[in-house]
User: Fold Methyltransferase-like 6 from Pelecanus crispus.
Amino acid sequence: KNALCSTERCKVFQCDLTKDDLLENIPADSVDVVTLIFVLSAIHPDKMHLVLKNIYKVLKPGKCVLFRDYGLYDHAMLRFKSGSKLGENFYVRQDGTRSYFFTEEFLSQLFKAEGYEQVVNEYVQRETVNRKEDLRVPRVFLQSKFQKP
Assistant:
């Protein structure tokens, strides 16, 4: 137990956002911000809506979800071989973990279908540089903010 951690302000628990009800650990309409940073890409596309529905229940009205994840045509996507493709924009890595590559349209529809309002939803392009191997690779991420009305 850390003396700096206040159990009145912070509760640590483990859950599967696609199955476990957040309301068992978090009161309804009590959360100011949720960060989904490289979270949804690891979840099967058929189950992503379950995560957003679960989060919606605990998010306060007027508050938001901050999202950042892989965008379509990111270098990581282009490196996959054809045998790694599980579905449209959905791939499996050699270690068995999965990765989905988002489009603005798909993400917008996903959130809006669960009742969220779109505030920002845009691609962010970066370049990763490996100086040792003299390698430059284009990175594409989707960065978004959605709000519960």
User: Anything to note?
Assistant: The chain has a mean pLDDT of 95. DSSP finds three helices and seven strands in the chain.
